[in-house]
């Protein structure tokens, strides 16, 4: 778990390929701990832990309603691997989440400035508003739609 | 393939209307308070503590968050809780908290007043049964609301309602939903305890209403067919049975008025 993460540069769509919508899609988000706001920044470079909603690279937030920890015995919150295809029970409560943040104007703005790649920084803040070690996800994807 | 939005299947007079909590009449608000208070007095599986516990603690935690069943599961949950309340006060319905409006007010007055009509306001807080607590000292629900300006805006909601794909709509709406849980804070901030706070039900009523509005706005869109026959455990309902709110006996009419017809005599 981390409080802040900056991705490697992500390729922006070619300027000659117009789009009507751009989404940042966060896959594999952990939601086992405290609830938090994930503030997202998009720019040619990452941002520091003090950046907030007033930062010029801020493009929006997504939220995670967390389980607040494990209340069972050892192993209760371990997500099973190799699920039996004939297992009709509901998936484990802690199967990772997905979040979709629409960032159309921000991506268009970067392209107007001839930016070709951008880094995504995510800062997780819990109710205290301070960055907190609650952030974990597998990947972030930029998708545009024509 | 997907399945389209609701088609009324019952005569309008059979439906009950869920209303904005800020527009309840004094009588409607009294009915809600009486129903919640009466449910709090029952210690078995008809009572408030039983229903709040289904969402989180005591284990098992049955709610579905961060999954494809988020909206249908919570629609079933509200429906059955509302049915339990109607057994206490016939005709009572859950109100919605429109957190896109009246930001300066923060938590609606119906929920924020410690006392109402000379007695403890059952919408202000709730006991938490021992098995429902994250720690032994958590005997009652508490709130720590954020700055009113940080509640979702109507522009944010409009952007989400414009999604034509159900799963994208649901994912983005759930994020807004998560943010309101964080904004209310305290007991509402954790999946394990959130449903013990009486405002939980009005928050989710708003979420359910937004799904209803999305269904009306996108009649050709809907839930992927592969999900329709999924069970919504522990409730005796499938996803398909939650699609049409009129089939569940309620709607979110902004206003309603009735005039008698000539009859058949």
Order of helices and strands of chain B: EHHHHEEHHHE
Look at the helices and sheets of chain A and give the structural class: mainly beta
3D shape of chain B: globular
What is the CA-atom radius of gyration of chain B, in angstroms? 18 Å
Largest interface (CB within 8 Å) is between:
A-B, 30 and 31 residues
Average pLDDT of chain A, to the nearest integer? 95
How many structural units, i.e. domains of chain B? 1
Number of helices of chain B: 7
Kindly state the number of beta strands of chain B.
4
Overall tally of domains of chain A: 1
Question: Into which percentage range does the β-strand content of chain B fall?
Answer: under 5%
Write down how many β-strands of chain A occur, each being a DSSP E stretch of 2 or more residues.
Answer: 8
The CATH architecture assignment of chain B turns out to be Orthogonal Bundle
Q: For the residues shown, what is the average pLDDT of chain B?
A: 93
Q: How much helicity do the residues of chain A have? A: under 10%
Q: What's the end-to-end separation of chain A, in Å?
A: 35 Å
Number of helices of chain A: 1
Range of helix content of chain B: 25-40%
- Major sheet description of chain B: 2 strands, parallel
Structural class of chain B: mainly alpha
The portion of residues forming beta strands of chain A comes to 25-35%
What can you tell me about this protein's structure?
The complex is a heterodimer of chains A (146) and B (265). Chain A has one helix spanning 104-112, and strands at residues 4-6, 10-11, 21-29, 36-43, 58-64, 97-102, 117-125, 139-145. Chain A has 146 residues and is mostly beta strands. Chain A is globular and about 55 Å long. With 265 residues, chain B is mainly alpha-helical. Helix content of chain B is 35%, strand content 3%. Chain B has helices spanning 26-40, 48-55, 70-88, 109-112, 154-161, 166-184, 199-217, and strands at 16-17, 115-116, 119-120, 250-251. The longest helix of chain B is centred in the N-terminal third of the chain and has 19 residues, at 70-88. Chain B is globular, with a radius of gyration of 18 Å. The termini of chain B are far apart. The interface between A and B is medium-sized, with 30 and 31 residues.
């Amino acid at each position: 778990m981390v409080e802040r993460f900056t991705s490697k540069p992500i390729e922006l769509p070619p300027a000659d390929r117009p789009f009507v919508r751009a989404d940042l899609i966060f896959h594999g988000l952990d939601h086992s701990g405290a609830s938090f706001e994930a503030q997202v920044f998009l720019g040619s470079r990452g941002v520091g832990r003090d950046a907030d909603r007033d930062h010029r690279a801020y493009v929006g937030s997504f939220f995670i309603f967390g389980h607040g920890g494990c209340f069972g015995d050892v192993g209760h919150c371990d997500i099973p691997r190799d699920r039996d295809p004939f297992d009709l029970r509901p998936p484990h409560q802690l199967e990772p989440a997905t979040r979709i943040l629409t960032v159309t104007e921000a991506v268009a703005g970067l392209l107007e400035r001839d930016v070709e790649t951008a880094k995504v920084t995510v800062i997780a803040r819990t109710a205290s508003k301070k960055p907190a070690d609650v952030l974990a996800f597998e990947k972030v994807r930029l998708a545009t739609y024509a | 393939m997907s399945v389209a939005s609701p088609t009324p299947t019952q005569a309008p007079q059979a439906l009950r209307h869920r209303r904005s909590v800020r527009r309840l009449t004094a009588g409607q608000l009294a009915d809600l308070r009486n129903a919640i208070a009466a449910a709090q007095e029952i210690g078995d599986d008809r009572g408030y503590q039983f229903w709040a516990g289904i969402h989180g603690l005591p284990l098992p935690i049955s709610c579905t968050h961060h999954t494809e069943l988020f909206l249908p599961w919570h629609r079933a949950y509200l429906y059955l809780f509302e049915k339990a309340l109607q057994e206490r006060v016939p005709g009572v319905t859950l109100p919605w908290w429109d957190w896109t409006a009246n930001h300066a007010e923060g938590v609606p007055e119906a929920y924020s007043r410690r006392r109402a009509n000379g007695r403890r306001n059952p919408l202000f807080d709730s006991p938490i049964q021992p098995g429902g607590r994250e720690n032994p000292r958590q005997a009652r629900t508490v709130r720590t609301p954020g700055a009113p300006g940080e509640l979702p805006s109507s522009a944010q909601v409009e952007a989400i309602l414009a999604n034509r794909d159900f799963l994208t709509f649901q994912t983005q709406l759930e994020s807004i939903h998560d943010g309101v849980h964080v904004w209310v804070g305290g007991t509402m901030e954790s999946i394990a305890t959130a449903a013990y706070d009486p405002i939980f039900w009005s928050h989710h009523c708003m979420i359910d209403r937004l799904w209803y509005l999305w269904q009306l706005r996108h009649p050709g869109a809907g839930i992927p067919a592969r999900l329709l026959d999924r069970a919504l455990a522990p409730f005796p309902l499938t996803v398909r049975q939650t699609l049409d709110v009129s089939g569940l006996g309620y709607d979110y009419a902004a206003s309603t008025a009735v005039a008698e017809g000539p009859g058949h005599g």
